[in-house]
Amino acid sequence: MIQNIKNMKIKRILIANRGEIAVRIMNTARMMNIETVAVKTAVEPNAMYLTSADVIFDNTEDTSEIPVFLDIEKIAIALKTNANAVHPGYGFLAENAYFAQKCIDNKIIFIGPSPDAIYKMGNKTIARKIALAGGIPMAMGSEGNISNEEEAVVIAEKIGYPVIIKAASGGGGRGMRIVRKSEEMEKMFIIARKEAEKAFNDPSVFVEKYIENPKHIEFQILGDTKGNVIHLGERECSIQRKHQKLLEEAPSCALDEKLRKKMGTMAVQIAKAVDYHSAGTVEFLLDSDKNFYFMEMNTRIQVEHPVTEIITGIDLIEQQIRVANGEELKYKQSDIILNGWAIECRINAEDVQAGFAPDPGKIESLNMPSDPCVRVDTGVQAGSSIVASYDSMISKLIVKGKDRKEAIKNCKMALDKVWIKGTKTTLPFFRMLVRHQKFQDGTFTTTFIEKDIEKYYFNSEYEEMLAAWLATKLFVEENLNDDSINIDFKRGKEMSPWLLNKRINQF
Amino acid sequence: MANDKLQIKKLYALSSENRKFSFSLPLKQTIRIGKREYEVKLKADEKLGTYILWKNRKYPVEIVRSRQNKYEILFNDISYTFTVETPFSLQRMKVLNSKRGKVEQEFIKAPMPGKIIDVLVREGSTVLRGQPVLILEAMKMQNEILSPVNGVIVKVSARANTNVMKDDLLVEIKIS
Fold it and tell me: In a 10 Å sphere around its CB, with 0-12 CB exposed, 13-18 middle and 19+ buried, how is residue B81 labelled?
């Protein structure tokens, strides 16, 4: 699949990340005959991603509070392991301009965009100015950062409520607060600033008009160092909870060819304004009248990149590596054809019945479907632990179909084949979602989870009754000494399954 | 005990939402739906672990916790809590419940482990449904905890800048 590589300067890549994205990058590197280095940490010394690497850098003796993946100075690791390139994955150092610069200074190839592009797009106020200069449609808002709530109120009165306060250095939904009336401003302003300072080390915030009930539409961008930039179509990520994406799909049923072309052209224009190279994402909000507004550009590979890979047939990690190697893109815009439909479910260790509270723990067993329409990107296996210090993702279940209807049908089938034991997961949520009329119609917006759902999980008619039967059975065995129970096991014939179960704790 | 056992003809599994499922003893390996009996099998294998086989489909099951007659069961990734009662204990429970009367207090508990950033109410203050009572930071996100009821704050156990565990009691509200 991957062509013979002539003149590949990149010989060994240090993966400055963990989990599924580390595994994902290593898989492509292997196909390209490039070696990889993984960093072993004290938090996860037996993590799955370590088994995919050619070289392990043991950092387990490092017990500092800051994860190694966030420590810019530890770039020296790359030098020690003879890696001549670094892939930051997503999160951690992926959007840190200083880190990218540090790599370049140390003559290490940074697989990602230029430090300048990271900086400009990472600062939302600068990004707004760039978009504004390029005539990109945007929600009305403050010119730059605002320093106090009085100023915020003045702007909000001018553009009209509701408004949204956003962190200038923000991302991932943190440091954002919606304000619907002036009385709420002071409180929300303080919360947003606190959250921004804590999350991004920068309390700067700005205010913009809040677009009601929008769809989240983002365009995948690919650029090279020769000035070529193309887009790979859109993804819809409207299924979010507190600005955290849960399910993404490509393409979006809200776009027709004409709108796709218009938005895609704008996305490319924004990327070109910062001489963008490598993979990136331009995010828009789309209102019910199909007006779209530039939101931000993410200067990295994203969690949801697989849905684009499926409908375009392009390996985005491979393209990132090639571009970093100095190669020219072999695709033109006209070569990009969207084929079929793809849906990604983020299976997280979260308790849907307790407001999506994280449920860290040890994965006791993990069985994923192996159907041709399913791709699984995972960083865990049976025996792995979901640790509280990192995000709660277990696996990404990516399902395709020839059209949206078939993709949903396949997704429903695949969700029933996922068996994860040891922690609660978001599976019951997705089982509900794929059955929801509004999801099937495609009429949902980013407020879907907040407003349109009565029950956050799906269970079929008799499931509770079967669980009740099991509870009764346990009671009978424990209290009434019933000897009528004879269950066949492959192994340990006389043993009850609940004795095999190691998770019986006391209340 | 031996005598009791003979007398018990039925068991009831009461869900936390007060749904009642009754099963006659000895407990059968079938469940009746309408006029038909369907076989239920509890099985286990090395790959899938414990599961229930019902109408040709396998459902993963786990026993999360058990204590006395209380069981938390994870069935197809959803947890259910039941107390299993005999006809006698059920009767006793009914009597006790009728004496206790209606619930008038609302207890706000921490939905997840985290840190209290700010407490927005004081003892004696009135709250409306949906009004934020405190801010809890968890997984780097600041979450507003809202009052689920209209009422008066009777007790504030939460203190700003302290860590809380899941299910820690934060605020008590007298429903009005």
Answer: middle
Contact A271, A263 (CB under 8 A): no
Asked if the structure places residue A403 within a domain, the reply is: yes
Catalytic sites of A, residue numbers: 300
Which among B47, B63, B79 has CB closest to A424? B79
Whether A146 and A257 map to the same domain: the answer is: no
CATH of the domain at A20: 3.40.50.20
Pick the closest to residue A84 from A7, A27, A5, A9 (CA basis).
Answer: A9
Q: Are strands A350-351 and A177-179 parallel, antiparallel or unpaired?
A: unpaired
Residue among A382, A384, A416 nearest A399 (CA): A416
CATH of the domain at A168: 3.30.1490.20
B21 and A468: CB-CB below 8 Å? Answer: yes
The beta-carbon neighbor of B13 closest among A353, A358, A471 is A471
Instruction: Give CATH for domain B105-175.
Output: 2.40.50.100
Give me the residues of A, 304-363, that contact B with CB < 8 A. 353-355, 357-358
Q: Say whether both A342 and A431 belong to one domain.
A: yes
Q: Find the residue in A nearest to B71 (Cα).
A: A471
CA atoms within 13 A on the CB side of A485: 24
Please answer yes or no on whether A501 and B60 come within 8 Å at the CB atom: no
CB-based contact, A424 to chain B, within 8 Å:
yes
Query: Which residues of chain B does A357 touch, with a Cβ-Cβ cutoff of 8 Å?
Result: 111-112, 138, 166
Q: What is the pLDDT of residues A340-389, one digit of tens each?
A: 999 999 999 999 998 888 888 899 899 999 999 999 999 999 989 998 87
Q: Does A201 touch chain B (CB under 8 A)?
A: no
Looking at the fold, whether A282 and A152 belong to one and the same domain comes out as no
Domain that includes residue A83, residue range: 12-111
In a shared domain, residues A442 and A471: no
In a shared domain, residues A390 and A482: no
**Using CB atoms within 10 A of its CB, is residue B146 exposed (0-12), middle (13-18) or buried (19+)?**
middle
Partners of residue A488 in chain B, C-beta under 8 Å: 43
Domain boundaries along the sequence of chain B: 2-100, 105-175
Residue A127 lies in a domain: no
Whether A273 and A351 share a structural domain: yes
pLDDT in tens, A141-199: 887 888 888 999 999 999 999 999 988 887 666 778 899 999 999 988 988 898 888 88
What is the per-residue DSSP string for A342-399? EEEEEEESEEGGGTTEE--EE--EEE----TTEEEEES--TT-EE-TTS--EEEEEEE
Interface test with B, best of A466, A477, A483, A500 (most B CBs within 10 A): A466
